[in-house]
Design a protein that fits this description.
mainly alpha
Length: 166
């Protein structure tokens, strides 16, 4: 599949090159400068300069039109954005609907089961959660002095290694 795509791509390149050569053969006549006198060569140069000037003028005109169109497109985009911004969206209100009311609205008369979602929740006491996390308050300077330097790093490494090793 890739080989076929490469062949088509190569063929396309060859076709473009041949079309370019054909177009240039039509538009650009070959120059015959041999055997011309100085005045004839000067006339030929003047004609070529006139043609170049005409092409440059056309190129400039097309470029100016392109820039004008680009600016116009940019202005129109800005206008569209301005028009979009002028319409205010209404703020959405929060609607509190119970699960039963929502099911009744969706299912209509088929809804027979009442859902009390709060009945199935587990109760948690605050005292239990506070007891689980003992808070150690100590002198932080002792900890910093003990863990400073390579000795402290070795202690931390040994402390991390020993519980998993046993």
């Amino acid at each position: 599949m890739l080989a076929k795509a490469k062949e088509e791509w190569d063929q396309e390149i060859v076709d473009k090159q041949s079309e370019k050569e054909r177009y240039l053969a039509e538009r650009v006549m070959p120059l015959h400068t041999s055997g011309l006198s100085l005045s004839q060569l000067q006339d030929l140069c003047r004609e070529l300069h006139e043609k170049v000037e005409i092409v440059d003028e056309e190129r400039y005109d097309i470029e100016a039109k392109c820039n004008h169109n680009t600016r116009e497109i940019k202005d129109l985009k800005i206008k569209v954005l301005d028009l979009r911004g002028k319409f205010k969206r209404p703020p959405l209100r929060r609607v509190r609907v119970s699960a039963d009311a929502m099911l009744r609205a969706l299912l209509g008369s088929k809804h027979k089961v009442s859902m009390d979602l709060r009945a199935n929740l587990k109760s948690v006491k605050k005292e239990d959660t506070e007891k689980e996390r003992p808070v150690e308050v100590g002198d932080w300077r002792k900890n910093v002095e003990a863990m400073s330097g390579m000795e402290g790093r070795k202690k931390m490494f040994d402390a991390a290694k020993s519980p998993t090793g046993q």
